[in-house]
């Protein structure tokens, strides 16, 4: 039970070629604050990549957005159907103020 809600290193998209592959061949879903790229994977687990451009704002705001997204993934990865490589890109403009807003928006799209 202890490791069930971890965000393990193997669950992260880190390589640039993985990001390119998912963004080029993956299914694109837009929500109010995020752009999601989803690609079916052969692995037994989901992998997450996060893109927050500098245009979004100062470093503390970008880091907060990444924390929100990692926390959502960590708590809800077992509810997402299939095995996916997913990239979540934060859109420029209006940003969610609270984690709850992020959670509600992504639950509608992914779960």
Can you give me a brief rundown of this structure?
The chain is an alpha+beta fold and 111 residues long. The protein has three helices and four strands; from the N terminus they run H-E-E-E-H-E-H. The model has no long low-confidence stretch (mean pLDDT 90).
Provide the CATH top-level class: Alpha Beta
Structural class of the helices, strands and pairings? alpha+beta
Largest sheet, spatial ordering of strands? 1-2-4-3
Number of domains: 1
CATH topology: Ribosomal Protein S5, domain 2
Helix tally equals 3
Total strands: 4
Strand and helix map with partners:
Blueprint: H1 16-25, E1 27-30, E2 34-40, E3 47-51, H2 59-76, E4 84-90, H3 99-110
Parallel strand pairs: 3-4
Antiparallel strand pairs: 1-2, 2-4
Please describe what this structure looks like.
This protein is an alpha+beta fold and 111 residues long. It has a single domain (9-110), classed as Ribosomal Protein S5, domain 2, CATH 3.30.230. It has three helices and four strands. The chain has helices at residues 16-25, 59-76, 99-110; strands at residues 27-30, 34-40, 47-51, 84-90. It has a four-stranded mixed beta sheet, with helices on both faces. Strand 1 and strand 2 (34-40) form a beta hairpin. Helix 2 (59-76) crosses helix 3. The longest helix is centred in the middle third of the chain and has 18 residues, at 59-76. The mean pLDDT is 90.
